[in-house]
Amino acid sequence: LASPTRQPYLHIFYTVTKSKGGATVMGSLVIVMFLFCKVTTTATSSRQIYAFARDKGLHFHRRFSQVSPKWDAPFNSLLFSFCFSCALSLINLGSPIASNIIGSLGSGAGMASYAVSIGCVALRRIHGQPLLPSKFKLGRWGLTINIISLLFLALLFVWSFFPPVPTPTPDLMNWAALMFGVSVLGSWRYYYLHGKHQYDGPVA
Questions:
Q1: What transmembrane ranges does the database entry give (predicted)?
Q2: Which among 65, 136, 175, 176 is most buried, taking Cβ atoms within 10 Å?
Q3: Average pLDDT, stretch 60-67?
Q4: Residue 186 burial (CB < 10 Å; 0-12/13-18/19+)?
Q5: Domain residue ranges in the chain
Q6: According to the model, what pLDDT value does residue 88 have?
Q7: Which of 24-28, 125-129, 198-202 has the lowest mean pLDDT?
């Protein structure tokens, strides 16, 4: 952690290879993998922004739902997703702790979204309602797998809000739980004041 590179994995590579060149090559591979992760994450989030905007579920939905005829892609959503995530990454320059909090907020939100999706499927199974057509089925083990998945996600969801150290000081506290709560309350407020009057959800 006290490495002059300020990146523990680079110091580990240098310790193992005893070579700056070897550590540089291995570090470059990590950066390339991060780049590919960034591209796929940005593409995924831009498609989600586009989908919600298309269904009038976001502010400025007319702009974000536009599809560029030249690129055949939702360019406005893609550009917003890219610029917003780049701006968030700059927080790490000023405060790695704040950056880690945002990262754990993303983890918690991801777990919550998976739980909502799996929970909806589990409820349909419990009530005996038909599921939408799919390319594969879990068969008779479907409900059991859904329940195990929900329990596992609940555990990960709670862990994502843990502080990095026991009995943390305020500057080391993981404030992601507070941020998650504010985000949920803000989303509910937007839905009840605006969203439910214009949101046109996807049709199965």
A1: 20-37, 97-123, 143-162, 174-192
A2: 176
A3: 90
A4: exposed
A5: 1-93, 94-203
A6: 83
A7: 198-202
Q: What is the pLDDT of residues 165-179, one digit of tens each?
A: 888 888 778 888 888
DSSP the chain: ---TTS-HHHHHHHHHH--HHHHHHHHHHHHHHHHHHHHHHHHHHHHHHHHHHHTT-STTHHHHT--BTTTTB-HHHHHHHHHHHHHHHTHHHH-HHHHHHHHHHHHHHHHHHHHHHHHHHHHHHHTTPPPPP-S---GGGHHHHHHHHHHHHHHHHHHTT--SSSS--TTTS-THHHHHHHHHHHHHHHIIIIIHHH--PPP-
Degrees (nearest 5) of the Cα angle 136, 140, 143? 90
Contact 108, 157 (CB under 8 A): yes
pLDDT at 143: 93
Distance from C-alpha of 122 to C-alpha of 112, rounded to nearest angstrom: 15
Is-contact 65 73, C-beta < 8 A? no
For residue 62, give both structure tokens: 């007319």
Q: Does residue 38 contact residue 72 with C-beta atoms inside 8 Å?
A: no
Q: Residue type for 64, please?
A: F
- Which residue, chain included where needed, has tokens 């754990």? 104
Backbone angles phi, psi at 199, to 5 degrees: -65, 130
CB proximity list for 31: less than 8 A, separation 6 or greater:
none
Residue 196 · residue 122 · CB < 8 Å: no
How many residues are recorded in the chain?
204
